[in-house]
């Protein structure tokens, strides 16, 4: 990976992969929202890279593929070689996962994606489908062997117990994930907490920690308890390898860059104060609706993206 145009943005080791990435990552979903035209998305991606952001987040299902297409265009002219590129696939079956991966490769305009993650592992059955003999992980292992991807992870935003279960199922199949993506923010610390339950396990296993939803798409700010800067600083303070944040304007990009450049670990008093300010608002998950509703669950709205159930299980159903 080439050195970034600027070197004042902090970097962190990505788990045990041997990769070094920027402490802040660029979220791909926002790149194709209605208020972000293609020209602006192009400026956001290239400006982020020119200012030291090397971690690019995306997903096969973001905005009907437009997020990947726009990022792919922005990564032309040598920008692709300056970033660590990640995307996600929804398929649980081997066939559907392979199809989605090949589509992501075409959209992103690359022959290799650095990290591919099983997306939205939200249900306790999801890891069993992924690790079935004819499941999605078999497709990713074959793709890795073919040089289409380098590392494998999984994501989820619903319940830390599902994450822990997924790690157990992977271990039962002799597999260790390279990365795990999950919500890490000032509200999560109080309710169904990934920080308390999953984060220590990932650190112990040296699995790369990808923090998402540091502002919960701005919903946390509506609580009136904390600022955007405080949210980003808190997420960076945790033992995260990358904090992925959504950026839909140049102003928001500069804010994220400034927080990263000036970051210093929070002291105990600062952490206590932030958690005290958010405790009441966070108590029932009101400002983390991705945990308490299906509004953010794309695969619940589109179950066909998961692909077919394993054939051996279908045979168990009564005729």
Oligomeric state, counting identical vs distinct chains: single chain
Following the backbone from N to C, one meets helices and strands in this order, namely EEEHEHEHEHHEHEHHEHEHHHHH
Output the structural class. Answer: alpha/beta
The DSSP helix count reads: 14
Rg result = 19 Å
How large is the share of residues in beta strands?
Answer: 5-15%
Features:
39% helix, eight-stranded parallel barrel, globular, 319 residues, alpha/beta, two-stranded antiparallel ribbon
What does the model show?
This protein is an alpha/beta fold. It is 39% helix and 14% strand. It has 14 helices and 10 strands. It has helices spanning 38-50, 66-74, 94-108, 126-130, 136-145, 160-172, 194-197, 199-205, 228-237, 250-261, 268-282, 289-292, 298-301, 311-314; strands at 11-13, 20-22, 24-27, 55-56, 84-89, 113-118, 149-155, 179-183, 208-212, 242-246. An 8-stranded parallel beta barrel has the order 3-4-5-6-7-8-9-10, surrounded by 5 helices. A two-stranded antiparallel sheet has the order 1-2. Strand 4, helix 2 and strand 5 (84-89) form a beta-alpha-beta unit. Helix 3 packs across helix 5. The model has no long low-confidence stretch (mean pLDDT 95).
């Amino acid at each position: 990976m080439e050195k970034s145009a600027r070197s004042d943005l902090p970097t962190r080791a990505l788990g045990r992969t041997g990769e070094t990435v920027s402490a802040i990552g660029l979220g791909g979903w926002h790149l194709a929202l209605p208020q972000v035209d293609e020209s602006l998305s192009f400026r956001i991606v290239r400006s982020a890279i020119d200012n030291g952001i090397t971690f690019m987040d995306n997903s096969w299902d973001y905005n009907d593929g437009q997020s990947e297409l726009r990022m792919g265009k922005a990564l032309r002219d040598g920008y692709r070689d300056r970033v660590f590129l990640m995307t996600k696939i929804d398929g649980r079956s081997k066939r559907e996962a392979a199809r989605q991966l090949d589509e992501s490769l075409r959209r992103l305009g690359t022959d290799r994606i650095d990290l591919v993650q099983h997306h939205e592992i939200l249900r306790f059955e999801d890891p069993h489908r992924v690790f079935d003999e004819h499941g999605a992980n078999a497709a990713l292992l074959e793709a890795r062997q073919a040089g289409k991807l380098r590392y494998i992870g999984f994501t989820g935003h619903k319940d830390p117990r599902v994450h822990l279960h997924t790690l157990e199922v992977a271990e039962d199949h002799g597999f260790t994930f390279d990365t795990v993506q999950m919500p890490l923010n000032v509200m999560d610390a109080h309710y169904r907490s990934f920080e308390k339950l999953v984060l220590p396990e990932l650190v112990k296993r040296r699995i790369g920690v990808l923090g998402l939803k540091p502002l919960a798409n701005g919903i946390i700010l509506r609580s009136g308890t904390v600022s955007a800067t405080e949210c980003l600083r808190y997420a960076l303070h945790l033992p995260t390898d990358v904090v992925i944040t959504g950026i839909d304007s140049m102003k928001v990009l500069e804010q994220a860059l400034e927080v990263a450049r000036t970051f210093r670990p929070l002291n105990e008093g600062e952490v206590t104060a932030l958690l005290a300010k958010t405790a009441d608002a966070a108590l029932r998950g009101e400002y983390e609706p991705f945990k308490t509703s299906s509004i953010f669950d794309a695969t619940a709205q589109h179950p066909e993206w998961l692909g077919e159930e394993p054939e051996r299980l279908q045979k168990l159903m009564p005729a």
